[in-house]
Design goal:
The protein is 40% helix and 27% strand. It is elongated, with a radius of gyration of 54 Å. A hairpin with a 2-residue loop joins strand 3 and strand 4. It comes from Fibrisoma montanum.
Length: 649
């Protein structure tokens, strides 16, 4: 019976501490173990302390290991030595391998056996040799090669090949060369075909077996086809062709590959694809937008620089841009069809999209190669190519440029007109002041001598001068609303109304007018122009009051829906402030509601109501300067309501 070992005691080395003369032998032994092609170790057993005979084996402790075994376990030699086997192989008991080692130790007889270990991260078969030595066990093992796959018998290979051919979705036909006495290929005979061939052609198996290749091909196509097949067979070069068969009225894509002393033809029906492509081409040819796909052309290989683009698809609209030559532009280089596209910068934009996969859209003037067109260009990356669309905006651009020129001329004309109005108004003021002064001097010095008639004439002349001065002041004010525009600022309309009421206080007191004013909002605007707006509207309400009724004026802030806005105006992002100025004055006929805001429009007799006909025109200009509008509703004898729409921000 082997002696039991105490696993908790200090490990006893298999080799006692050698003297210097023996140390070389120890190193030599370890080197031999490490050089072994297999996995080798010496283990000491750990037996159960008590129990029935035979005493069961609990574990094995590694006392000596070689490096291949340590590499298999994934640890260093120092980490493995003196460790239990179950530390690295927890399943060694469950698999029955440890029990097998125990039986060998008890029998004291070496044994070789094969064992499959599928646990602890290992999966495979091992050939193990275990030899009892001293109180322990020398274990060496190697991995077994995987079992060979059963060889396919020639009969099975033939059946498998036939199954592949019969179940292929492509038509497959094999042909063997027929040669003359000089070993020249004169024809081909069919060696095999699959059911797809019969279904696609509508022909019988006997038809193919009884006819050579020449007998199956239309005579007018035969020379070209035979030349291709000669190259496939003799030069061992594969090729593909698309072919329309008038016999079956179908398009087929045919792949030709060398096969022995003959060739293999594989073909698929592409009729639907060809029809779809033709229909797509017909559709894009009808588009007024030029459409094309461009494939990058590189110097050397896929990673090299792009030097040009090949046109892989184009519609008729793009082809119409090309002046010479009139041949189809597909499969030609862009530099051949549009020689100046690199100089003008289009090539760089196309290359950027191809390399960086970015979409682009821009307006471009192509003025070269016999083309003078403004186009809206869109470039989109598409499966390694770029898709371009060119919308011709030449007429629109020409109209736009003409409008811009006309607008510039009109703006210049308006500026000159406003400058003229401002300058002329100032120049007219001085002679009018002199006429008024001279009239006063005439009345003071010669009034009695003039008599009543002469004095009346002078006063009428001075009245005309006064009206002219008011008219000029009105024109100056109207001109300033167009030329003197200040940056908008925060304006409290309540403050504006308070200032206006201070200016109108004498008239309000005289007319005993009643005012009702809602709290007004704060907006963005020009305070001077807004003050002029409300001053003109309130002055108007006071001026055109009825003689028999005290003026009653209301300033209301209204809630208005977008559907309630005047025609032709859209609300800004922040919406409108809507303010209504209502009075109970004399009013006017509704047919004049549009022209009342025009310059010099007067609806009343000057002897009854003074005015220049400029005030409401100024109101309209101020509101428009703020991005708003103004409307009026009125009836004779029932007053008027002026509604002002001003943006909030």
């Amino acid at each position: 019976m082997p002696q039991k070992a105490d696993v908790m005691s200090a490990a006893v080395s298999l080799f006692p501490e050698p003297d210097p003369g023996d140390r070389k032998l120890v190193y030599l032994l370890q080197g031999m173990l490490d050089a072994s092609p297999g996995f080798v170790c010496y283990c000491e057993p750990i037996w159960e302390e008590t129990g029935p005979e035979p005493v069961p084996l609990i574990d094995l402790v590694y006392r000596l290991v070689n490096r291949p075994l340590c590499q298999l376990l994934g640890h260093s030699v120092d980490e493995v030595v003196n460790q239990r086997m179950t530390h690295f192989l927890p399943s060694v008991k469950a698999t029955g391998l440890l029990n097998h080692y125990g039986q060998i130790l008890l029998a004291r007889q070496a044994q070789q056996f094969d064992f499959t270990y599928n646990a602890d991260g290992f999966s495979g078969g091992y050939r193990i040799e275990a030899t009892p030595l001293l109180d322990g066990l020398v274990i060496s093992f190697t991995e077994l090669p995987p079992p060979p796959k059963p060889a396919i018998q020639p009969a099975d290979q033939s059946a498998m090949l036939q199954s592949i051919i019969d179940n292929s979705l492509s038509g497959l036909m094999g042909f063997v060369a027929i040669r003359d006495e000089q070993d020249r290929i004169t024809d081909f005979r069919v060696s095999f075909f699959n059911p797809v061939c019969l279904a696609l052609t509508g022909l019988t198996a006997d038809y193919f077996r009884q006819r050579t290749f020449r007998q199956q091909v239309p005579p007018d196509h035969l020379p070209a086809i035979m030349a291709v097949l000669q190259q496939v067979v003799t030069q061992r070069q594969s090729t593909r062709v698309e072919f329309f068969s008038s016999h079956i009225n179908r398009w087929v894509d045919i792949g030709l590959s060398p096969l022995g002393d003959g060739f293999l033809a594989s073909f698929i029906d592409i009729t639907d694809r060809k029809r779809a492509t033709s229909r797509l081409q017909s559709i894009i040819d009808q588009a007024h937008t030029a459409i094309a796909t461009l494939k990058p052309v590189r110097t050397n290989g896929p990673a090299s620089d792009i030097v040009d683009f090949e046109i892989t698809l184009a519609n008729r609209t793009l082809a119409d841009y090309v002046r010479t030559p009139p041949a189809p532009i597909v499969q030609r280089l862009m530099s051949e069809s549009f020689p100046s596209y690199k100089v003008l910068g289009l090539f760089d934009r196309y290359r950027q999209t191809a390399e960086e996969k970015v979409r682009q859209r821009f307006e471009f003037h192509y003025n070269a190669d016999g083309i003078d067109a403004w186009v809206d260009v869109q470039i989109v990356p598409l499966d390694g190519e770029v898709l371009i669309t060119l919308s011709n905006h030449t007429l629109l651009k020409q109209t736009q440029l003409q409008l811009e020129n006309k607008l510039s001329e009109l703006n210049l004309l308006n500026e000159n007109l406003e400058q003229f109005t401002y300058t002329a108004s100032h120049d007219l003021q001085e002679p009018l002041r002199k006429v008024r002064t001279f009239g006063d001097m005439i009345l003071d010095a010669h009034g009695p001598a003039l008599g009543e008639g002469g004095t009346d004439l002078v006063r009428r002349m001075q009245g005309a001068v006064t009206r002219m001065q008011e008219l000029i002041r009105g024109l100056l004010m109207y001109s300033r609303t167009a030329t003197d525009r200040q940056p908008h600022q925060v304006v409290d309309l309540n403050t504006i109304i308070d200032d206006v009421l201070d200016d109108l206080e004498p008239v309000l007191t005289e007319t005993k007018a009643n005012l009702a004013i809602d709290p007004l909002p704060v907006i963005q605007g020009d305070p001077l122009q807004l003050r002029q707006l409300f001053q003109n509207l309130l002055s108007n309400a006071l001026k055109f009051s009825r003689a028999d009724v005290l003026p009653d004026i209301h300033i209301d802030v209204c809630e208005t829906q977008p559907t309630d806005l005047p025609a032709g105006i859209q609300a800004p992002a922040g919406g409108f402030v809507v303010i209504a100025i209502r009075d109970n004055g004399i009013g006017f006929d509704p047919e004049h509601e549009e022209r009342i805001f025009e310059l010099f429009q007067r609806l009343n007799n000057r002897s009854q109501h003074t005015g220049t006909g400029i005030g409401l025109a100024i109101c309209k200009r101020v509101v428009e300067n703020h991005g708003g509008t103004i409307t009026v509703k009125s009836r004779p004898g029932a007053g008027s309501t002026f509604t002002v729409y001003l943006p909030r921000g």
